[in-house]
Amino acid sequence: MPRGALLDGSVDLLERAGVDAAVLRDPGRRLALEAPDGTAFITTRPSDVATYVEAGAADVGIAGRDVLLEYGADVYELLDLRFGGCRMSYCTKAGPDPTPEAVERLGVVRVATKYPRAAHGYFAGVGRQVEVVKVNGSVELAALVGLATGIVDLVATGTTLRENGLVERDVIFESTARLIANRASYTLRAEEIDAMVASMRAVVDEGVGE
Amino acid sequence: MNPADAPARLPTGARDVLPTEAAELRDAEDALRRVLRLNGYREVRTPTLEYGEAIERAAARGVDEAYRLFDADGRVLVLRPDLTIPAARMIATRMADHPGPIRVFYTGSAFRLPQPGRPRLSEHRQAGAELVGATGPEADAELLELLCACLRAAGLERFRVAVGSAAVMNAALDAYMDGDDARRRLRAAAAARDHVAWAASARGLDPALGALPTRRGGRGVLEDVAREIPAAADACAALSRTLERLDGTPAADSVGVDLGIAHDRSYYDGVVLEAYAPGVGAPIARGGRYDALAGRFGAPRPAIGFGIELDPMHRALAAAVGPRPVARGAVVAGPGAHDAAQALRATGLPAVACADAGRAAALADVEGWRFLAVPHGDAYDVRDRATGRRFASIRLQEDLPSLP
Questions:
Q1: What is the ipTM score, two decimals?
Q2: Are residues A50 and A95 in the same domain?
Q3: Same domain, A60 and A134
Q4: Is the separation of the CB atoms in B286 and B261 below 8 Å?
Q5: Count of domains for chain A
Q6: Residue A153: what pLDDT?
Q7: Three-state secondary structure call for residue A81
Q8: Residue A1, in any domain of the structure
Q9: Of the partner residues B197, B199, B276, the one whose CB lies closest to the CB of residue A184
Q10: Is the pLDDT reported for residue B98 higher than 90?
Q11: Cα(B168)–Cα(B247) distance, integer angstroms
């Protein structure tokens, strides 16, 4: 289970699908928890969920598509859970787009990001040479102080961008939370996983109908 | 840093195999070899180096992931990235006169460049079997049964073999999708196990196509899919007949249908299979039918095969068995160690002489030997190190009991 922004939505969805996940409502500082029915939950940073599932430390997990694409985890991607919506975008300072100027005068666009794979993939796709600077937080700052021409980052509401005088120039991909499964677990615990997918699919489809 | 300055460093993806693991791998491999021979499969070897062109005939992008080098004439050679392609090449070119069916097996390593950013091994030890010149449910069932027998012989009990069909998937894609691009997109989604992307690409079409990769279970699934996607009915019936033949065999409980299985190797065109065991996230075996492959090297001949991935299989064994088992053998301590060790070897028990009695116990500990033999009066006591029980007392002139 991803700690942070996706946790509440994940717990809501699990409970509506009939999984007793109440123990996750107030995990405190505990990282591994057990529900009364014996289900073992582990909570990790969102970017680590796919890693734990890929290694088989968990049979199934909930991870954002952004994380799955960035880390290229070898897992089953079973269901679009349709919450935790956000988009990976290329953003620069508001006003005239500084990107063409950078290409023209410097030959490359320098981009700061927490998602180097997404950044490389995007610029390779649009045919621009790019110098990716990996930063670990508050990426907006890099564009503001001129460390980079622009940033590649996840945008949910756009509030942080606006407050820092940045605008989105291009959407690279849209992301939502996904139900993922370990490759061996998917086959070895087929019936349990199929039942879980079916009940979660019913909840997700119902939510869209509303 | 210059790699020579750090002697413990290895090229990315390479690793050493230390004695405990090497012994376990060898034992498992020997068990596989016995089963394969017993079933009339004959061992072959193909070279580690192949022409890049030979690999490209079979797998369009096969050379991209291979280690490449050049021969004296400047031709591109590769460390074989796959064992099935060389086997198919060998059978088509060197065994063309064999009336068939041809049954061969091999053990060896395939080499693939590790993916950037991920710790992946470059050397993949495999044991593979190929049945060439036989087609139909009987041949497919033979291979499935053989795979299950191999995995059981290696010591695995709780494995599952998921069986799909490239023929079912191809028939469904041809029926609903226009254009190679769309079909390629769906195949890529299936190979990446991305059910969400598959469903998105199939949106607006028959829901049966959107759900295809999620369809799995018993043979009943095949009847359902045959009804929902008439174009795939023949392929479903073929797979169903294969599975029917497993009824009543030990393989029946281990094999299930999974129509989502699709390999990124492009040469499979019939049954496709993947085997999994608890404790290992990667498949311990994979394979399938590749009827079109032989035709790229010589006369076309139908073929089906599997490859067992020995390292993942060994991880599954280690997970199932628990801590390392003790090694059958003894460390013999003291001044008469040489002769006592010889006497033990004569009974078939591996024995190591260690004249320095002070080091013998530590040696037995580090190397995990089961017995320690120490002088006792004018004889040697052979004791089980775990229980302290005395198994035998050796007088060097006497005949010895056979030890466990």
A1: 0.85
A2: no
A3: no
A4: no
A5: 2
A6: 92
A7: coil
A8: no
A9: B276
A10: yes
A11: 22
| Subunit contact A187:B160, Cβ cutoff 8 A | yes
For residues A45 and A106, membership in a common domain is answered with no
In which domain, by residue range, is A167 found? 86-173
Question: Do A53 and A155 belong together in one domain?
Answer: no
Let me know: does B332 contact B341? Beta carbons within 8 Å: yes
3-state secondary structure of B30: helix
- Residues near A141 by Cβ (< 8 Å), separated by ≥ 6? A147, A164
Q: What burial class does residue B178 get, using C-beta atoms within 10 Å of its C-beta: 0-12 exposed, 13-18 middle, 19+ buried?
A: exposed
Q: Once rounded to an integer, what is the mean pLDDT over residues B301-330? A: 88
CATH architecture of B12-321: 2-Layer Sandwich (3.30)
A192 near B CB under 8 A: no
Residue A127 pairs in a beta bridge with: none
For A139-149, what is the mean pLDDT? Answer: 88
Six token digits for residue B212: 């295809």
Contacts of A159 (CB under 8 A, 6+ apart): none
Q: Are B384 and B404 in contact (CB under 8 A)?
A: no
* Domain harbouring A142, CATH code: 3.40.190.10
Residue A22 lies in a domain: yes
Neighbours of B209 (CB within 10 A): 22
Using CA atoms in the order B348, B349, B355, B361, what is the torsion angle rounded to 10 degrees?
180
Q: For tokens 């491999």, name the residue.
A: B29
pLDDT at residue B111 greater than cutoff 60: yes
Q: Do B214 and A75 touch (CB under 8 A)?
A: no
Between β-strands B327-333 and B369-376, what pairing exists: parallel, antiparallel or unpaired? parallel
Contacts of A72 in chain B (CB under 8 A): 115, 117-118
Confidence of residue A208 (pLDDT cuts 50, 70, 90): low
Q: Exposed, middle or buried by CB within 10 Å (0-12, 13-18, 19+), for B383?
A: buried
Tokens 């007793």 correspond to A20
Q: How many helices (H) and strands (E) does chain A have?
A: 9, 10
Judged by CB atoms closer than 8 Å, whether chains meet at B196 and A78 is answered as: yes
Which tokens go with A33? 């928890």
pLDDT digits 0-9 by tens, B148-187: 999 999 999 999 999 999 999 999 999 988 888 888 889 8
Q: How far is it, in rounded angstroms, from Cα B66 to Cα B64?
A: 6
CA gap A71, B330 in Å, rounded: 48
CA angle, corner B16, sides to B13 and B21, nearest 5? 120
Residues of chain B with C-beta less than 8 angstroms from the C-beta of A80: 196, 199
- Answer yes or no: do A184 and B258 touch at CB < 8 A: no
Within a domain: residue A115?
A: yes
Nearest alpha-carbon partner for B286 in B302, B305, B303, B299:
B305
In a shared domain, residues A95 and A79: no
**Do both A38 and A117 map to the same domain?**
no
* Same domain, yes or no: A163 and A97: yes
Q: In what order do the strands lie in the sheet with A60-64?
A: A60-64, A177-181, A76-80
Which residues from chain B sit within 8 angstroms of residue A186, using beta carbons? 193
CB–CB contact A56 B196 (8 Å): no
Alpha helices of B163-277 — where are they, by DSSP H? 166-176, 180-191, 195-201, 207-211, 220-228, 233-244
Residue A2 lies in a domain: no
Residue B264: both structure tokens together: 């990124």
For domain B327-394, the CATH architecture is 3-Layer(aba) Sandwich (3.40)
Domain positions in chain B: 12-321, 327-394
How many helices (H) and strands (E) in chain B? Answer: 13, 17
pTM, 2 dp: 0.88
